[in-house]
Structure formats: structure tokens, C-alpha cells
Amino acid sequence: MTTIIKSILTFVVLLLVGACSSTQSLQEYYVDNSENPNFISFDVPSSILRLEEANLTASQKEAVGSLKKLNILAFKKSGENEADFVAEKTQVKAILKNKKFTELMKMNTSFGKATIKYLGDEDAIDEVVIYGDNDEKGFALIRVLGDNMNPAHLVELIKAMEKSNYNGEGFSKLKEFLE
Questions:
Q1: Which position has the higher pLDDT, 83 or 23?
Q2: Model pTM score
Q3: In this structure, are residues 94 and 175 in contact, taking their beta carbons and an 8 Å threshold?
Q4: In whole angstroms, how large is the CA radius of gyration of the chain?
């Protein structure tokens, strides 16, 4: 009888410790905010990039084959949601500081500052995260999901996009939202 009670108590303690110690993942953040009126959330399938129509090299085809989709979540800043903007921006940055993310690069763009990080091994990246913010307009968080991508694939993917007939379709909602 005491063995059963000890087992149940051990299970409950492990359950509580696991629930309390876990920090929010990026996926959970996306799900939690997909219905928030301050955000716009949508997915872009890799097929919309029309890369299969382009005349690609073998390495570019391999890069395209590793890409699945893009998840986009953007927060539009306004005069009424200043405090929410600061809180959400802080939360995203805290999630991205997790040691499981490896920083690939930082850059300044016409939109604002951006950071590119990835999850996975250097030779088998499963997710690339692009985060950019602008204190006037808001921030955007883009998850590039794929299978066994590598940094060379990212360069090849950009080259493939340059060869395709892709004109930014699918991202017009993001551009309109942040304007």
C-alpha cells in the first residue's frame, strides 16, 4: 500500500515540477497569440514560392526540398497598445534567448533590427527563426520550417527565389498589416 502511495506522490511531484519549470516555447507563443487582435497570424506553404517552376541547380533543388512552410506572427503597434507591445516584445526576446536557439546573424533592415536564429544541429536545421522589430510599427516573427536544412541551404534557397516568378504573394497581408 505504501509503495502505491509513494509512486503516486512521486508522479504528482514530477508532474508539478515539469509543469512549473517549463518555459513557453515559440510554438506555444504562436498558438497563444494567434487569436489576439494585436497580432496577425498566417502560414505560407513553400509551394507559394513557385520554386518548382524555376530552372534550379541540384543544390537549389535540395534546398527547396528541405523547406516545408513559413509561420508568420506579427504585432502591429498602435497608440492604444504601447504597453502590450513592450510586454510582447520582451516575451519574444526572452524565448529567443533560450540556449537551444543558435544565432546565425543580426542585421539592420529598412523595417528595423532583425535577428536570424535556428533550432537543430548545424548540419540538420529543423527551424529558422527570423525576428524583426521596429519601435514605431511593431514586430514580426517568422518561422521557416523544414527538414534537415543547413546554412548552405538558406543561401541556395535565396538564390532559387531570385530565379523563381515569386513576387511576394502571401506576404501582402503582413505588409498591409504593418503599414
A1: 83
A2: 0.73
A3: no
A4: 20
